[in-house]
Amino acid sequence: MWINYVFIICLIGSVASKYISPNHFWMLAFFGLAFPIFLLANIIFTIYWFAQFRVHFIFSLIAILLSAKTCLGFIQIDFISEKPSNKDVKIMSYNSMLFDLYNWKKNKESRNLILTSLAEENPDILCLQEFYTSEQKGDFNNIDTVKGLLNAKNYHVEYTTTLRGNDHWGIATFTKFPIIKKGKIEFNTSANNICIYSDVIIYKDTVRIYNMHLQSIRFQKADYKFIDQVKNDTVDTKDEMEKSKNILRRLKRAFVKRAIQADAIASHIEHCKYKVIVCGDFNDTPASYVYNKVRGNLKDAFVESGSGFEQTYAGKFPRFRIDYILHSKEFKSKQYHHLTETLTDHYPIVTYVSF
């Protein structure tokens, strides 16, 4: 029973982490990261006590009910799958991982396959994070390539890093609708994290599109190697404590920086006079302060029209949902889904928005 009490407290703590900034109390953010584990443990305890006809099952059941809203950010059942109409706007968000510029996937065709998937989906609005383009390397002039593939003449690109005057790293939004204004929210960080916004005209209505890439954990090769060793139970006990501390330090630093970034974005959205669509790689789960802060009063496309246990991260770290499409309450989302195949460490996410 005492073990059960511990997991109840942990579950409540993970729910509370949505409302308390890691910039003020960073330890609670770790509870939010482990929300699915604490939820599953309480479900098991509820079944265990109930099977023995013990009243103790009520305690975990209450904790589960308190976490129900948070749970909806992870798993959904779409009873009514409404088909999109010709007037609905197709939106896609994707961390393109620089179109596999450095051949991480050991596949020379990976860039072409990524671009092929974009062309097949053919979204009306495409938000790309970890975008790369080159003015000299013809094969990697990704601005012209994406414009041509999608027939999207309008785009908004901001660079966080430029080398040799021609190679650019940053973030990009492509759209088939006219862009009347462009802007950005810069973060006080040396990392390639940024948020841009583009005011577009959609059916005579001005809508602001936010596209963001928030602070990454920035694990190094040694960290990933250690995680693999833990999974395979081959870790060297001599270095285990120090390597564990290093991972925790990286997580803590990312939690705090993302919280500051989320506060700035939420304030910007709050003062926006237009209806908004928010896309991006938040690098945090639905049980996080970052997600809760940025979402605010907006609708979550997955919660509105998604189905199943959603995961958008395809890397080695636990595969949670960290990529999102949010929108104003005046809009309605349909048929949210992620593509089943990806050549990066993220799955592309897609939804239709009805105006």
The helix content, as a percent range, equals 25-40%
Structural class: alpha+beta
- Name the CATH superfamily assignment of the largest domain: Endonuclease/exonuclease/phosphatase
Q: How many structural units, i.e. domains? A: 2
CATH fold node name of the largest domain: Deoxyribonuclease I, Chain A
Summed over residues and divided by their number, the pLDDT gives a mean of: 89
Number of helices: 12
Secondary-structure element string: HHHHHEEHHEHEEEEEHHEHEHEEEE
Topology overview:
Elements lengths: L1 H15 L10 H7 L1 H17 L5 H10 L1 H4 L3 E2 L12 E7 L1 H4 L9 H12 L3 E10 L7 H9 L3 E10 L3 E9 L3 E8 L7 E9 L2 E9 L7 H11 L5 H34 L4 E7 L7 H7 L3 E2 H5 L2 E2 L13 E5 L4 E7 L10 E6 L1
Helix pairs in contact: 1-2, 1-3, 1-4, 3-4, 7-8, 10-11
What does this structure look like?
The protein is an alpha+beta fold and 355 residues long. It has two domains: 70 residues, no CATH class; 237 residues, 4-Layer Sandwich (Deoxyribonuclease I, Chain A). The protein has twelve helices and 14 strands. The longest helix is centred in the C-terminal third of the chain and has 34 residues. The model has no long low-confidence stretch (mean pLDDT 89).
